[in-house]
């Protein structure tokens, strides 16, 4: 089929594209009769707009159009397509003049598709189904434009629209283009006094190099997720501050370890010696599980600690805030006369040992107000304790009242009672509202998880749902009928025996089924933070405190006279406690001497979020020693209480709980 040779292109605002019409060769066209198909900007009510997106950076070629493929499906005359070159934003050219309606009569229904910067031209005569299935791979999609290293950078964009030919002689068809890629930005601040900061280099892990040309109805697959070499394309903004731009095609993932991340290589010099440190920086927050096309993901990161000496580093503790916004060519124009809207970049935020945050942005069609709905924490018994407005721990919110857009400034003292503070507030704009939840953590804090029953991880042990013929006790004490350990469950306010003659009886009046979790974010000079390395017999001489560990509830209470040091180690290895939500907790061990000390410190505070869990005079420890607690009285002896290290996934689940 022949095609036209003359076209008009004009892209403005949100990349409006005048669609071309074609179907006959230029020498087959009738002579011009004053009729023309043209393109002009289409921005409704430009005076009543607000900014609700992030503009592209022309210096990074994010708006460049190297070539444009246009495909039109005409119900009257079949498929028409053309590749245009030399197209630039703001350029106006003639599409076609003459009696073009002889080819596309009034009332013709057109489906117009446009593709910018595709690596391959669509096949001639391609049908709509095949067009929708087109894919493109770009192994260098992560790499930003650079005049030296990557000066040919362009972005795949696409769009489509339906159009019906009218009676007018001059007509315009607008097609909005959007990028297939997402933009990921790291704003990096290096705060390391005493060190000279060298030029950082970076690579991106877990990014997608493959995409559909047009946005699919389902999620993009993650079949092609890649790791690329280091590069040094970094913008230095001010002293010790840098900006990294990278890109990925849309993707989804399960588990934060598979989210896109930057591995940063940072040279630091002190006393004339330069050392390379590595930092693994997540590009999105932990609650995010997908990257959407044509969106911008921004991470504001402060490095205030030395990183790892090798690439094989876990996620480095960093101060980071995240934002997600639409990524447009220019500011999105929202018609305030026709739309009412209220947007926030995040409705859930975690503040780690900081008293101020302004990372959340809001956009509204009308002036906003706010109310603080609740400020509270949970005590050692799981009771919600409201913080009154006159308390020094009560927060303030600013930047919202009387504004249509801006940043929300949250000011709140870091909690001083070893627990997590919850802040809930609502932003209102007209009849619309958004409720936000803030969780604020101190350096050290404790939480609790309620237990349902205890048993063992070995085969044959009893559960509440399977009691017949199952083992329910072990570690017999001498020739008596007493045993060191019994399976137990919690019901009606008491810890009770599970199985055997005493099934259902309460265990010495015990009532606390809470597994307390202690997390320590900083050594603060008092403890060494780390995971103890276990020997073949399960013991360890490491005198460290786990960064996150949980303490068995009274469901794990034992008759300690039946346990020497070796039996105590073996007991904890197979101990199992199951939460009231059905979560199974295995992998227990004895506490280190230092962990016993920190538990004593916590439970000795009248405002502590944990109850007294170590009430005996001495406790078996991981080093096969007996650690004194300083508690005297009737509870003399050597007692046993198991602990376990939380996994990163468990820490993340706790952190993401909104209440």
From TrEMBL:
Domain (Major fimbrial subunit protein N-terminal): residue spans on this chain: 48-177
Location of the Major fimbrium tip subunit FimD third Ig-like domain: 343-442
Annotated localization: Fimbrium
Domain of life of the native organism: Bacteria
UniProt keyword list: Fimbrium, Signal
Keyword Signal among UniProt keywords: yes
Keyword ATP-binding assigned: no
InterPro entries: FimA_N (IPR029141), Ig-like_FimD_3rd (IPR058822)
Primary location: other
Assigned GO CC terms: pilus
Protein family (similarity comment): Belongs to the bacteroidetes fimbrillin superfamily. FimA/Mfa1 family.
Name of the protein in question: DUF4906 domain-containing protein
Organism this protein belongs to: Hallella mizrahii
